[in-house]
Amino acid sequence: MIGGYKIITLCGSTKFKEAFMEAQKSLTLQGYIVISVGLFGHAGDAEVWEGMDEGTLTKTKEMLDDMHKRKIDLADEIFVVNVHGYIGESTRSEIAYAMKTGKKVRYLEPLAE
Questions:
Q1: Which of 24, 37, 40, 98 has a CB 3.0–4.6 Å from the CB of 17, allowing a cystine?
Q2: Is 71 part of a structural domain of the chain?
Q3: CB neighbours of residue 107 within 10 Å
Q4: Confidence band for 46, pLDDT divided at 50, 70 and 90
């Protein structure tokens, strides 16, 4: 918490760019400081990967995954953008990390039973 505002980090597949933007707006208006992804590699920022050799691509993806965990470190809680219930492998890893570090985990859509 900073200055009385809770910090929340958005997690989820970057293919859901519009849902990320809506969650960011909504949570900001609810009084949260929102930390989001730096780029949408699966929805509109594909040029980021163009021209990268396999080694550079792998290192860049590893860096982005690690960077997102550092964003979770900064947060009081995470908000999972799980459109249609979708939670991919990377997001599962972020949820597990958040839980391990004692962060509250909230979801856009209720989890399937």
A1: 40
A2: yes
A3: 16
A4: low
Mean pLDDT of 87-109: 95
The DSSP letter of residue 41 is T
Domain of residue 39 covers 7-107
Joined together, the tokens standing for residue 89 give: 């492998």
Residue 113, pLDDT score:
66
Q: Where residue 58 sits, what CATH number does that domain have?
A: 3.40.50
**Burial of 16 per CB tally in 10 Å (0-12, 13-18, 19+):** buried
Residue 113 forms part of a structural domain: no
Listed in sequence order, the residues at least 6 apart from 28 whose beta carbon sits closer than 8 Å to its beta carbon are 34
Domains contained in the chain, number: 1
Helix, strand, coil in percent for the chain, rounding step 5: 45, 20, 35
Q: CA-CA distance, 35 to 57, in Å (whole number)? A: 24
CA 111 distance to own-chain centroid: 17
d(CA 104, CA 83): 19
